[in-house]
Amino acid sequence: MPHSTRPSPSQSTRNAGRRSPRVRRRGLTEYGRDIDFETVASELLRALRGHRSQVQFSRRLGYSSNMSAEWESGRRYPSARTMFCAAERVGVSLDEALGHFDPKSAGFFTSESRVSAWLSSFRGDRSLEELAASTGYTRHQVGRWLTGKSRMRLPCFLALLQGLTGRLPRFVSLLVPIDRVPSLASEFTRRQQLRQIAQDNPWASAVLMLLGTQQYAALNRHDDQWLAQRLGTDEATLEQCMSILRREGLVQMASGGKYRLTSKTQIDLNTAPLERKRHLAHAALSRRPHRDGDTRVDIHFYAVDRSEQQRIDALTDRYLRDLAAIGTSSGTPEATGIIAVHTTRLTDPAISVS
Question: Does pTM top 0.85 for this prediction?
Answer without folding.
Answer: no
